[in-house]
Amino acid sequence: MATTMTPNELQELGKRYYGFKEYQKALDAFTEGIDASDNPEVDLMDNRAATFEKLENLEAALLDGKRMIQLGKKDVRGYLRSGKVLQRMQKPDVALRIYEYGLRNVPTSDKSYKLLQGMHDKLSEKISPPKAIDPWTILPPELVEIVMNYLTFREMVNCLRVSNRWFKFLTTNQALWTTLDLSHARRAVKPRFVRECIRRSNGKIRRAILNRLPGGGADTLMHLTTVCRHLQELEVWNGPEGGSILVPLTCAPRLKILKLDASVRLTLHQVAQVLRSRTSLQHAEFCSVRARDRIAPWGVDLPNLQALRLVAAGVQDIATLCLGELVKRMPNLEELSLISWKKCTAYNVIDLGTLQLKSLDLSDTAYEHFRRIPISLKKIAVSGPPADPSIHGHTLPVPNVVELSVSRCGPHVEQMLTGLLSNGNDENGNVDVDISSHAPIKKLLLHELGSHTQGNLRYMLQNPRFLQLEHLDLMEAPCVRDELALSLPTLFPNLKRLSLTWTRITGVAVKGIVEQLKGRLEYLCVDNSLDTTSDAIDWARAQGVDVSNRKTTAGNQRRKMREAW
């Protein structure tokens, strides 16, 4: 016969039975009350969990405790009940995690929050080693400093909250604050914190990465450069625009490395002004430069500059860089990156042959307008179709290059590879393909090959300079299927790293490649190759190969294209 009592009346009945220690009757009453409720209250679930405890049915009590948390995530009782039951079940580690989870969800204004905090602290102390010793009390300061240097700046700052002893030691050790790294900041950084770090270093910060400062942090940057006269490395992320960064940079006389991300937008004249005022620079990166059709006034010699990166903002004319003057001013340049300088108003006017460059990046830059590039190059990257497709047979021989990246050249990939890997043009203007004296390519990246067929790609990969390849990266190449993939170990028997991202290979190719290169292949990337199977991936990993099999969107993958380079 169905009961006529309400859930509240059944709860009161159960409490009376519980008080008389008639636990089975109390359990029946509480259960009937829960069954009669569409959404049982946490209080009623807590009563039944307590009754299960008295009946030594700890599993059922724990299930009710978990349901209490589900019903009221901000209610402290579910965490207290679950933690208590888990301790009785001899699972103190799990109980501690439940308490920690509760402390993250229960509002601090809850009157029982301190009770939950107390249970957490009591259990934490109980399960800690009986003779736990603060390492600060036994280790010499020199060793502690070495240990702290292995932590990121953010991790070291978190250590300030461990104890008063740790706070005092860390804040009084100047050597730990000579690097200010805000690259891991997850929220806005208060200028007061930066000033405090400068004070702790006694004004001796040598390396700084600024990020997430309010309003771009122009005032904070000014304070940093004026106080820290020994600053040698500076990176600015999400920084101030234009001229507001110029004055702070002139106050850093010992600056050797400067990197400004795309948020710091400068004109070409402002870039030249920075370089003229800081002739001590050895490495400079400007990731958002607007030329505005004005020729760069380089002005002074920069014999210390060894690496320069200039990224154009929008469509800019490479002629405005006045590269002939650049070559004269920077004779010791070893690394040059000219990104997105797509427009070129003059043909065959760019000659970098007199430089002793080791690395050259011409991504999205009008490469066909370069007359000569240094034969000293070891690494080169080009991308994007020719700005003037009517120019044919243009060669840029790179006999000593060992790392080559070509991407997004569309139908001009073969033409580009021939121009780079040839020996230049002979006396009749034909491409000289005799490359017997050229250095073998060790690393090759071919990205976004578009409509090329397997036959086209196989022909391009048979260039003699590729025979000793150790690293091959074919990304967004839909023409790469099992047939071609299985021939790669034969073409390149020395392969150690192979990336086939966004291709059409299957698990058959994965197993075949690993078997043929057994003992030599160290890394295989098949990200976003949707036809691969998990069993083939697991098998390859079991053979000792590091396999990456992530799935991301095509747009994100394109943005990460140059990371491997």
UniProtKB/TrEMBL annotation:
<feature type="domain" description="F-box">
    <location>
        <begin position="133"/>
        <end position="180"/>
    </location>
</feature>
<keyword id="KW-0802">TPR repeat</keyword>
<dbReference type="InterPro" id="IPR001810">
    <property type="entry name" value="F-box_dom"/>
</dbReference>
<protein>
    <recommendedName>
        <fullName>F-box domain-containing protein</fullName>
    </recommendedName>
</protein>
<dbReference type="InterPro" id="IPR019734">
    <property type="entry name" value="TPR_rpt"/>
</dbReference>
<dbReference type="InterPro" id="IPR036047">
    <property type="entry name" value="F-box-like_dom_sf"/>
</dbReference>
<dbReference type="Pfam" id="PF12937">
    <property type="entry name" value="F-box-like"/>
</dbReference>
<dbReference type="GO" id="GO:0051879">
    <property type="term" value="F:Hsp90 protein binding"/>
</dbReference>
<keyword id="KW-0677">Repeat</keyword>
<feature type="repeat" description="TPR">
    <location>
        <begin position="7"/>
        <end position="40"/>
    </location>
</feature>
<dbReference type="InterPro" id="IPR011990">
    <property type="entry name" value="TPR-like_helical_dom_sf"/>
</dbReference>
<dbReference type="InterPro" id="IPR032675">
    <property type="entry name" value="LRR_dom_sf"/>
</dbReference>
